[in-house]
Design a protein that fits this description.
Layout: H1 6-16, H2 24-31, H3 40-52, E1 57-59, E2 67-69, E3 76-80, E4 86-89, H4 95-102, E5 114-118, H5 121-143
Parallel strand pairs: 3-5
Antiparallel strand pairs: 1-2, 3-4
Helix pairs in contact: 1-2, 1-3, 2-3
Length: 144
């Protein structure tokens, strides 16, 4: 039996109410509004506990710190390889994926984690602006 923790409950509620897949530091800053005496270490320990117990998802993106998701229902994440932003991909039919995978072997699929990687729209537009500015700068230098 796990002892009830008001701080853990506050962290869980915070994650379940947001869709931005925050880092532990972001959760800490947000939770401090309601729990001003909470420590960063307490937030880390509780995030780890909640993830180990399946109450939240811990997303290791490979870019920056881990992210956390309060939605534990199966869904697909897009991870930007440039900024590390995590975006839910909710409108992708997932049932066929599980059906096809199930046809490949005689076991039972109980869940899955699927992550798509690339560049988000914001990073693409920043790259386009930077490329455009670099091109203009190179043209100015060449023509002088």
């Amino acid at each position: 039996m796990v002892k009830y923790s008001r701080q853990r409950e506050c962290i869980l509620k915070n994650l379940q109410e947001r869709r931005d897949h925050p880092t532990a530091d972001m959760v800490y800053e947000s939770v401090r509004v309601e729990q001003p005496n909470i420590s960063l270490g307490t937030v880390y320990r509780n995030l780890s506990f909640l993830a180990q117990n399946g109450q939240i998802l811990k997303l290791t993106t490979g870019i920056g710190p881990d992210r956390f998701d309060g939605c534990t229902a199966p869904h697909i994440h897009f991870i930007c390889r440039t900024c590390g932003n995590v975006i839910d991909m909710e409108d992708i039919p997932q049932r066929r994926l599980v059906e096809r995978a199930s046809a490949q072997f005689d076991g039972i699929i109980e869940g899955y984690e699927l992550q798509l990687f690339g560049k988000c729209g914001e990073c693409l537009s920043i790259n386009k602006r930077n490329d455009s500015e670099s091109h203009r700068e190179a043209f100015r230098t060449d023509s002088e």
